[in-house]
Amino acid sequence: MVVTEGCAFAHLDPAYRRFAALPDEERIAWTRADRWIGFDQSGVALARLENLLTYPPRDRMPCLLIYGDTGMGKTKIVRKFERDHPPKFSQ
Questions:
Q1: Which residues, 6+ apart, have CB-to-CB distance to 83 below 8 Å?
Q2: Which positions ≥6 away from 9 have C-beta within 8 Å?
Q3: Taking the CA of residue 29 as centre, how many other CA atoms within 13 Å lie in the half-sphere pointing to its CB?
Q4: Which residue, 29, 4, 1, 30, is CA-closest to 15?
Q5: For 46-89, what is each residue's pLDDT tens digit?
Q6: 33 to each of 15, 28, 29, how far by Cα in Å?
Q7: How would you class 77 by CB atoms within 10 Å of its CB: exposed for 0-12, middle for 13-18, buried for 19 or more?
Q8: What is the pTM (predicted TM-score) of this model?
Q9: Average pLDDT over every residue of 15-43
């Protein structure tokens, strides 16, 4: 690739150019990090999980089943919810 002065990484989105300029180890770590890319249906599932979390306790609590083909993002949705709501332990 030929880079002219002032046009380094011009082929990249401006928001990501700074990551391309990182030292190798930092750039590789950034590339390998998990990222959340939201979609409409994942947002619906997360909103439903939020609703269930705040649901008043009852004898028969509502539940949620997330199903789909392999590789569709079911585990990612649950992991995102877990990151947003870390467990709280009380002695």
A1: none
A2: 3, 17, 20, 21
A3: 5
A4: 30
A5: 999 999 999 999 999 999 999 999 988 899 999 999 999 998 88
A6: 17, 9, 6
A7: buried
A8: 0.63
A9: 89
